[in-house]
Amino acid sequence: MFLQRRHPVVFAAILLIAVLALTGCGKTQSADKGSGEKEQKSATADYPEQPITYIIPFNPGGQSDIEARRQQPYLEKDLGVKVNITYKPGGGGATGWAELVLAKPDGYTLCGFNIPHIILQPMERGNTGYKTEDIVPVAVFQATPIGLAVPKDSQFKTLDDFIKYAKDNPNKVTITGSGTYTGHHITYLQLQKLAGIKMTYVPTTGAAPAVQNLLGGHVQAMLGNSNDLVQHQDKIRVLAMASEKRFAALPNVPTFKELGYNIIESIDRGVAVPPKTPPEIIKRLEKAFLAIANNEEVKNQQIKQGFVPVSMGHDEAVKYIKTKTDEYSKLVDDLKATAGK
């Protein structure tokens, strides 16, 4: 007040400087924000500019790895950068998915994902390190119906033989599959419920170790993926397939459904990015992966190997995961209710 009365010119000058300073700060902040947005848009427009890491959350040699290796040269040609495949097995895929959701959402970290694994694990395990909605699908490109197999020299010639023995010998039948709260595990739980039997489940870190368990004589049976069943059909006997109709590559194998057990299970595989990945990057990756999925040579290779070709983009995959989440929520509740009786 004293300065204002005695030195009005000085006071006015100070006030003017303060106003200009504030205005300048506002412009600087606005400029900084605008600059940041331009940089982000530029980065998105120029994507990709550096190598991409493609995480496989299972062991080498499994279905996810086979498809990633098939896709790798096509992706590198389309995207113009190196695609490095790495392995993060553990927890039925959960180790890799937990790492994915923490990765920078810049399109340089991808990860293969499996349905229903990404649905069942958060639903039943609690803290898996990720949530289903954190797995942002780019595309779904492959499926494998699940089948029940035993060694070629097994005493079990039919599904009836298998179930009768399991009923007479509770918990004695050892059966392996990839992980817990996976498509294989849920098939095991359904078979136990519908057949009224009790078995011992031996989980592995992926499909390849499950096959090794069976062929090595460490277990009596395996819930395996269709391509493994086709590949090793000279060494195993497939008792039933969890498909809607008979699997074309194994036409003489009955379905669970036609044998009186309503079990339809398949593993759907795709690739995902971290949450908050820009839509433009998702679209660019989607285009690259769907071009591969729709390639006739690739589809013929898949069919010959025992896979089911799939071509599902981001939007469709998001809706599909939501639908399957609702289905598995009801199924798990039903299994729990039955187990509690």
Observed structural traits:
D-Maltodextrin-Binding Protein, domain 2, 49% helix, alpha/beta, disordered N terminus, 10-stranded mixed beta sheet, 341 residues, 10 strands
Describe this structure in words.
- By secondary structure, the chain is an alpha/beta fold.
- It has 3 domains: 1-28; 52-143 and 268-315, D-Maltodextrin-Binding Protein, domain 2 (3-Layer(aba) Sandwich), CATH 3.40.190.150; 145-265, 3-Layer(aba) Sandwich (D-Maltodextrin-Binding Protein, domain 2).
- It contains 12 helices and 10 strands.
- Strands 1, 2, 3, 4, 5, 6, 7, 8, 9 and 10 form a 10-stranded mixed beta sheet that branches.
- Helix 3 packs across helix 10 (279-293).
- The protein is globular and about 65 Å long.
- Residues 1-32 have low confidence and may be disordered.
Main beta-sheet strand count, sense and barrel state? 10 strands, mixed
Helix proportion: 40-55%
CATH-defined architecture of the largest domain: 3-Layer(aba) Sandwich
The topology string of helices and strands comes to: HHEHEHEHEHEHEHEHEEHHEH
CATH superfamily of the largest domain: Bordetella uptake gene, domain 1
Which overall shape is indicated by the principal axes computed on the Cα atoms?
Answer: globular
**Number of DSSP helical runs:** 12
Q: How many discrete domains?
A: 3
Number of beta strands: 10
Query: What's the CATH topology label of the largest domain?
Result: D-Maltodextrin-Binding Protein, domain 2
Radius of gyration based on Cα positions: 27 Å
Content-based structural category: alpha/beta
